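Recap for those who missed Tuesday's class. We walked through two folding examples back to back. For each one, the amino acid string is listed first and its predicted structure tokens come directly after. Nothing is annotated here on purpose, so try labeling regions yourself before you check the end of the notes.
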Amino acid sequence: MSLVTLPDPPNELKPLSESLCAVIRNEIMDHGSIPFSRYMEMALYQPGLGYYSAGLHKLGEAGDFVTSPELGSLFAACMARQIRQLAGHLGEYSILEVGAGSGRLAADLLKCLDEDHLPDQYMILDRSADLRQVQQRRIVAEVPALLDRVTWLDQPPREPWQGVVLANEVIDALAVERFQKGESGFEQQCVGHGENGFHWEHRPAPPELAEALDALGVEFPDFYRSEYNLQLIPWLEAVTAGLQRGLALFIDYGYPRREYYLPQRNDGTLICHYQHRAHDDVFFWPGLQDITAFVDFTLLAEASACCGLQLEGYTSQAMFLLGCGLDRILVEQTAQCGDGGLALNAQARQLTLPGMMGERFQVMGLGRGLDLALKGFSLLDLSHRL
């Protein structure tokens, strides 16, 4: 149970959540308790009602959370240096950004990349129709001359292409299975409904989940609870299916497996974001808050092998940005600032300090057909920790 005090949402938003609750409740009435993964999928993506589907303001100070690109242009400037290195290696290339948020990273990247290194196409794949509109408005306002290079997709490209896949804080929002180690085996945590609203229920884990958990090789104590992402392999396969040659970069909060399933982390990694408050009550006003789970980066590396990808590097966000030249970018941009670089340095601290985003966020690069030592992993590669 969350110990964070959470304010009620505005009255005009409550009917949205109540409508979503009715849809979820009806599914439970028709089929019995539902896997948590199904509840999370509906809470986030139910058409017209889910958190990412209902037109709510999610990002920035007026939303529920702030991502690295939303802090300013430094994140994109570092990414642009990594992309320029790849562009020099690949020649003609495109970018596919999965889950582009407000479009801030897309716009800033297109501004940072010089004419010789611009992508032929900047493809955006986003499940949220309202965020697509936000992205389009930003591109039109900030880089109108490059609008013809930007395309929005409903499905990942399956025709052959080469270039870069970017996914910043995307995997954490894939619906995960929630499990408990019971006395007689693994149990799947499900969501039921009663007089007091939604609640947890348990049933024996289905074979696919039980086999995946057995294969982890982790000795879970009884009543240990956590998450497992059954969607990860099919999702990764889909977003990289057409990538003939290039790099997929995944930036997210997470751990290698040996840290993900630590004994003291015995209630998993689920976290909800609501009005810049982090808490663990997944049943709080469904549809009006983000629900996420930390990423098991070992699982992501294992999934890459199933999809014909190679692990190119794994490190913290801080070391990736520094490897891409953050220190030099700071010097260059500070010289152009009227405040002596105070805002830029504050931005850099938030991106790199261990207590902020620097170590909590990790970066993994998965490649296909590459023979290149990537800048971002040049200072510190933590692949051995996987």
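Example two. Treat it independently of the first, because the proteins are unrelated.
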Amino acid sequence: MKNLLPPNWQFDTDQLPTATNDKWLLPPLVDLCARLREPGHQQHGTLKSEGNAARQNGFLHVVVPPDTQPVLENGSLLAGLRERAHHDAGIHLHVLGALTAGLAGEFPANMLGLKQGGAIGVTNARRSFANDDVLLRALEYAATFDIKVFFYPDEPSLSKNGVAHDGYIASYHGLAGIPWIAETVALAKQLLIVEETGVSAHFSQLTCKSSMDLIRWAKQRGLPITCDVAMHQLHLTDDALIGFNALAYVLPPLRSNTDQKALLEGLQDGTIDAICSHHEPLAKTAKQAPFAECQPGISTLDTFMALGCQLVRDGILTAEQLIEKIAINPARIAGIESQWRNIGGAVLVDPNQAWQVTADTMHSAGKNSPFIGSTLVGQVEQIFFN
């Protein structure tokens, strides 16, 4: 057995089964972005169904964005949400509050109230700002109260109503494209304002080569930033859309082979700090309309560990580096490292276990995975969570 628990980790290995040859023992995983669909979108999943999917796949700590219905902008609502997630699914929920009121992008939200209510940070998700002055004032406000800001870079005037990466696949299928520059222009602006305000920032779900170049530049300048990539971006490109495959429709979109190669290099050289699931479960009907009218999103919790094991088999990461990207660094980025360590627990993984992705083998209520029907290798065998 490969023991990948951090030094002085709180876990009694006497709990382990006797036959653990060739298996991995990991700390609980930490997900920096998953939509568990409550409140307001229970037709796609619930705290109970998606929290259980997270737990069964090794995630004990899950960060959720505020673009729910209603928007998570009231600190008093957060405690109830956390309590329900723990009661219904046995996971620890960590909430990002709204950066602007109602995520409307017009003026800053009550960030102090959100911080007092237990929000670990704030974000405007993929919603736009009325103008750059609003963004500047919101970041100054966040910096004043020492609140981390999470960004999902996208310039709406460039992405418009696009549904796929702006390349050959989109053109061939007659789909509205989203150019890589839509992400990079937004990222460049946000980095400059982060430098001006000194706010601590995390950039989530980056997808393209130029974004990797900008993040490297910013880190070399000493900006207080981190970034992550969604697991599916490391394994899929826009080729997955061929034949109008709506199961691969996600925002930000799957990019080109060149972009994917740059992401893998960024993962190896430390430019990318973490890997998130970007879990977005959807009801079956959400993917049954014509491609551009479907809802974007991929159900990812169930395939996450297998795809992580594949990164190790492919020589992209060592097992130790994988744990840094999916547990150690995410806990630090979310500001929950002491809680993560104090709660402890462990996950036993069989990296060589082959299994088929089907509706029955997925724990999530959302079966919207482009891997459905595929055989993957690597699976959580047992969890040891209190």
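Answers for example two:
The mean pLDDT is 96.
The chain has twelve helices and 14 strands.
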